[in-house]
């Protein structure tokens, strides 16, 4: 299976993802606009502002048609993530979010957000036994990842865990 990026029908770059692959990175900041300015100055590219269901704005950091990562306000995140202060949150593709969450807990992880359908897919947030936070998001070996913006939701709770599916 190729893991090389390839454009989809809209020209957005997609990457094959598989179980255990880090598939997305999200920066949580207490000053998102300043963070966008910093990262854009540092590595170039553009950003697209996407409204979040909880009222904040997610910035998709792009290089042409390739979405590289997202940046969002720390406010609106689950309390254990807010307590960390600004941080990066990696997303790991898993074949079954619920099963991976249960396995993680059985191996000493702490649940931050139980598996839930959050409007962008099914995801769960854990803190591993060493203190690092991660998001588990579903995929299958044949899935190609194309970022998609979240669908509007009215519940702030649905904004807390995200998935590797954004499109602008």
The share of residues in helices is: 10-25%
Number of domains: 1
Low-pLDDT segments, ≥5 res: 140-168
Strand arrangement, major sheet: 4-5-6-3-7-10-9-8
Looking at the structure, what is the overall shape? globular
Largest sheet: 8 strands, mixed
Number of helices: 3
The separation of the N and C termini measures: 26 Å
Order of helices and strands: EEEHEEEHEHEEEE
| Strand fraction | 35-45%
Q: Any idea what the CATH superfamily is called?
A: 2,3-Dihydroxybiphenyl 1,2-Dioxygenase, domain 1
What structural category characterises the helix and strand content?
alpha+beta
Describe the structure.
With 168 residues, the chain is of the alpha+beta class. It has one domain: 2,3-Dihydroxybiphenyl 1,2-Dioxygenase, domain 1 (Roll), CATH 3.10.180.10. The chain contains three helices and eleven strands; from the N terminus they run βββαβββαβαββββ. An eight-stranded mixed beta sheet has the order 4-5-6-3-7-10-9-8. The longest helix is centred in the first third of the chain and has 12 residues, at 32-43. It starts with 5 loop residues before the first strand and ends in a 23-residue tail after the last strand.
Give the tags.
168 residues, alpha+beta, 2,3-Dihydroxybiphenyl 1,2-Dioxygenase, domain 1, eight-stranded mixed beta sheet, three-stranded antiparallel beta sheet, disordered C terminus
